[in-house]
Every structure is written in C-alpha cells, then in structure tokens.
Amino acid sequence: MRKRIYWLLPDLGSARRTMDELLLARIAEHHVHFVARDGAPMEGLHAANVLQTSDLVEAAQSGALIGSGLGAAGGVAAAFAFDPASPAALVIGVAAVGAMLGTWSSSMIGSSTPSRRLKRFEEAIAEGQYLLIVDVPRTRIGEIERLLERTHPEAHFEGVEPNVPAFP
Questions:
Q1: Quick one: how far is CA 146 from the chain centroid?
Q2: In degrees, to the nearest 5, what angle opens at C-alpha 25 toward C-alphas 36 and 130?
Q3: Strand (E) or helix (H) holding 98
Q4: Which of 16, 20, 57 is nearest to 36 (CA)?
Q5: Which residues span the membrane (predicted)?
Q6: Considering the entire predicted model, what is its pTM?
Q7: Predicted confidence band of residue 113 (pLDDT cuts 50, 70, 90)
C-alpha cells in the first residue's frame, strides 16, 4: 500500500534535483509526478498525466456504482414486465451493462474535470512553483520526508494523501 506525498518546489532546478534524489532513493519514476503551469519547462521531470491531474478515477468509480445500481433496478423492472426464465440472470446482466455505461460516461466527464485534490495548489502552480506528487510505500514515508527536508530546505512539505487510488 502506498501513500501520496505532496511537496511544492520553487523552480525547475530544485524539481530536477528532487527527481534525481528520489530515483537514487529507489523510488520508481512512474511513482514520481510533477505538475507545473502551462508552458513551464519540464525537461528531466516525469510530468503528471490525466490520471493524477483530473478526477477521472473517482468519477469512473462513482459511475460504476451508480450505473450498476440503476441497471439492477432496471433489470428488476424488466424481470417483472417480461417474466423471463432466469430473472436473476436478467438483473445481473442489465446491472453489468449499467455499470459499464456508467463507468464510461462518468470517466469522460471526470477526465475533463480538474482534480479536487490539487485544487489547493492552483495558486502556487500559477505563480511558477512545481508540485511534486510522489507515491511511496507506507513504511518509507518518514525516510523520504527526512531526505527531502534535509536536501531541499527551499521546498515546502504539503502533506500526505490519506487514500491513494489503487490505480494510478
């Protein structure tokens, strides 16, 4: 299980040094993400993608839940209306279709919605700072925090996310 740590770094040089130190500390590159304002240089950094910068994952999960619930309700109504040979199979099938449609439609909306988790960093990012998002094993949180505090006094620790999505 991993926890997500947030740090604000003042400039590109600090962000690059931090990236190198995390790699040397054996944090895999795909667990290190940077967010910067549009047009900011990102050479040498692993930029965050839509999975980290949008509400896609949360929206897909909500869509699956709501879609399957509505699909199950529709399946029950259809079972009463048509009197099928296997009403349970009808309910389960319609619930599965509802879950798929709910996941798909909600993920389309969520991919275009900025992440609520990153909302508090918008002003700092707009001012030119770089946001570091790093997912570390629970057992290494203290070690990584101490490393960054020691090597980057210019950086600001911004907290630990209590619930990191299993994907990404």
A1: 24
A2: 10
A3: helix 87-110
A4: 16
A5: 64-82, 88-110
A6: 0.75
A7: confident
